[in-house]
Amino acid sequence: MPNDAQNVTWVPTVKKTDGPMYLSIADAIEGDIQAGVLKPGQRLPPQRALATALNIDFTTVSRAYAAAGKKGLVEGRVGQGTYVKDLQQERVAQTTAKKDQPVDMSMNMPPRFENEVLFRKMWDGFQDLGADQGENFLMRYQRPGGSAADCDAGQRWLHDSFGLSQAGEVVLCNGVQGAVLSIASLILKPGDTVCCEELTYPGFLAVAKYLDLKVVSIAMDDGGLDPDALAKVCKEHQPVALYTTPTLHNPTATTLSSDRRSNISEIARIYNLTIIEDNAYGALATDAPPPLAHFAPELTWHVASTSKCLAPSLRVCFVLPPEGVGTEGIRRAISANGGIVSPISAGLATTWINSGLAPKITSAIRTETQRRQETFRDVLPSATVQKDAFHIWLPIPKEQSATELLLGLRGIGIGLVPGRAFAVGNPPNAIRVALGSADNLKELRADLRSLADALDNPQESSWMVV
């Protein structure tokens, strides 16, 4: 009869005092997978053999393997044993099965990173949330603008991510567009003039149209919004508010320098201009200057979403009002505009922030963004790529039409956004390329090659003719 000890190729490092032994073993499996000690496809020791090696009951090891299986880390094979799952291979298979579907590179979402253990920890946040909250969390309405715990987590996120430490309560809203709608409906009235970059987030333009606001564009250059152009607009049009995305601007991905932020703040003070600062991408930027809310805290509504830097499905946006402005008004506006965030989404964001998981997610997104930028540079080396941005602003040669280019690409199942979608005035001959839409680098490279081929051969684009 074989010696069980010979079958023990891996023994977890656990302490019997660290809670239930089976959970400690399951955690050790997860940790060693993340550390590379346990490899995809590797067989775990037989349950009885590991029980003997640890001097514990067989059922404890059985429960540990079952707990790891529930997390998707291992799988049992009848008559063969328990094996570490090859999660990357599963993802590739799923991606291959979906490849016949059109690739919508118009959706600007964070790229999916390759860290299955981190994904599992993100899902574990639901279990942690359920353990921390009672029945009332599920069976009662929550206060518009977020609970005290969620608002505190938002304040912590703004402080840790952007250094915003001024006093004042943060409120939660359903996404950037919901926040902008709520703020605009609170501080503006129909017919008011607002200004923004000449290329801007289409969601803001939709809000302005819905509220019957007059929009005036501000000229941009390679550094982003031009402060001199802002001063000219303020002098000639007397706008009430400025909407701007100073960090990783959408769609150009430019980031305003510290000097420009300071100049914009001083101009806003001179003309008593309220600033709505969209900082949806700010947490991804590794070397951006402080937000406008730092330079002009008394004038700035700071809006920071989790959709681009944590997970699009959360739809959680933190809103920091200007200094001296209370939160009751914005809470009423959030309620009236249907901008209340789901307490489950808010609670999950709070759990990720308070546990320290949130910055790890952001770091993983940033790392994957760098890999995708390298792929983009390899396929389209002449294009300009802004650091930390997972969207690329791509001007099209004058002899080629961006609209015709996109129609041709749509015929082969690739969707992109034309410059006119962002333009306040005359549309530029350009497109925005979202690097996060593809499921992996292989898929992204194939799509970018199709784009490069269409740019190199404008007369040979594939058209869908019916």
From TrEMBL:
InterPro entries per the UniProt record, alphabetical: Aminotransferase_I/II_large, HTH_trans_reg/aminotransferase, PyrdxlP-dep_Trfase, PyrdxlP-dep_Trfase_major, PyrdxlP-dep_Trfase_small, Tscrpt_reg_HTH_GntR, WH-like_DNA-bd_sf, WH_DNA-bd_sf
Annotated SUPFAM superfamilies: PLP-dependent transferases, Winged helix' DNA-binding domain
GO molecular function, one term: DNA binding
A matching Pfam family: Aminotran_1_2
EC number of this enzyme: 2.6.1.39
Matches recorded under CDD domains: AAT_like, WHTH_GntR
Organism superkingdom: Bacteria
Keywords in alphabetical order: Aminotransferase, DNA-binding, Pyridoxal phosphate, Transcription, Transcription regulation, Transferase
Occurrences of domain HTH gntR-type (ranges): 19-87
Database matches in PANTHER family: HTH-TYPE TRANSCRIPTIONAL REGULATORY PROTEIN GABR
Family: In the C-terminal section; belongs to the class-I pyridoxal-phosphate-dependent aminotransferase family.
Protein name according to UniProt: 2-aminoadipate transaminase
Lineage: Bacteria, Pseudomonadati, Pseudomonadota, Alphaproteobacteria, Rhodobacterales
